[in-house]
Amino acid sequence: MSRFHESQDPALLALVYTDAAGADRVLTQLAMVLLEQDVNLAGLVQHNAPRPGRSRCDMVLEDLGSGRHVAISQDRGPEARGCMLDVSQLLTASLMVEDSLSQEPELVILNKFGKSESEGGGFRPLISTVIGSGIPLVIAVPWRNIESWRAFAGGMGQEIALEGEAETVAGLLAVLGYGPAAAAGSGGEPRGSGL
């Protein structure tokens, strides 16, 4: 596993990826391992639900604090070639995470610093709130958004490249201080997951 663009602040970890499905699986596995260790988590992991007869899937976020699911993609019909984000549902998911911050989580996991965040919207205010609170944050960042992420993060934190999924989970656990031995049980879904 490679690590690059590292600063003195390991409380902000960017999982940088080209494989979106792999990044979703890594964050889900990371959450599951930490929940099994009774770590108090907040945040969101993404599950993609296939739609029969459609070229695209539904994007569903799972709130790690409550286990609730929020669908964040608009249904654009069977001929749609791309996904369209449902901004109101994204706001709902963001508010769920903000509410869970009052429970003083030990760690926040967010599924993506995506196009919306690169353009100044989406989870950007939530990310700022989490960083400002001092709660450690793990967030997935697609390579195509890395420069926007670096400008936003201002050189804080670390970036870890997604390589092998199991190795990346173990690396994230180690950087977070939960040790590589914890990754041994990293199969399955997070507690409360219905997907």
Write structural notes for this entry.
The chain has helices at residues 20-36, 87-100, 115-118, 124-133, 146-153, 165-176; strands at residues 3-4, 12-17, 41-49, 58-63, 69-71, 107-110, 137-142, 158-161. It has 195 residues and is of the alpha/beta class. The protein has an eight-stranded mixed beta sheet with strand order 1-8-2-7-6-3-4-5, sandwiched between helices. A hairpin with an 8-residue loop joins strand 3 and strand 4. Helix 1 (20-36) packs across helix 6.
Supply database-style keywords.
globular; 195 residues; 8-stranded mixed beta sheet; disordered C terminus; disordered N terminus; 6 helices; alpha/beta
Q: Short description, anyone?
A:
The chain has 195 residues and is of the alpha/beta class. The chain contains 6 helices and 8 strands, in the order ββαβββαβααβαβα.
